Amino acid sequence: MRSSVFVALSALGVASATNFTIDVSSVPLTTRSNWCTAQSNTCSTLCDNSPTANSCDPNTLDYTCLCSNGSAPGLQYYLQSMPTFICEEAYSECNAEYAGNSAAQSNCTTSIQDQCGSLNPDNYTAAAATTSSATTSTVAGKSTGTASAATTSGTAAVATTSSTAAAVPTAVGHGAAAIALGLFAYLL
């Protein structure tokens, strides 16, 4: 039985899809079961041990992974994930298909193996919740400005800035920097 498995790759909002076709029945059921166990463990790790959806079917290799914050982790970048197992199997099948043809096998490497995840999920560190705030005020005490930003697992929230006189809050730049830093940390 030949099955098509789609692995979506995305980076910074730009998405591309790679279609790896593997022969699911050529992979022993025990191996597929081990893949599903590893996939579930990796999903749990990447969802900070609180996924809302985490399933895997060893018969079809269909899987789901959704974190409690509503996001899907970038499984395709990690070892011990279904996208990587499928990618590695597609590479193995491609290499076997073109045995003796070094140019075709080189193409298997660049078009498939180089797309396989390589990050170790054991080295994953959850994005820490950070809070930054700053307050400015005039010497007369009549005007104040406040800017604050908080990030929790990559979700940014910014408080509004207010002033009771003509003084301009100077800490707004710090709030924007905190948001940018939080989003950058989330992307890592």
Automatic annotation (TrEMBL):
Protein keywords: Signal
Domain DUF7707 intervals: 21-121
Matching InterPro entries: DUF7707 (IPR056124)
Residues annotated as signal peptide: 1-17
Pfam family, one: DUF7707
Name of the protein: DUF7707 domain-containing protein
Organism: Sporothrix curviconia
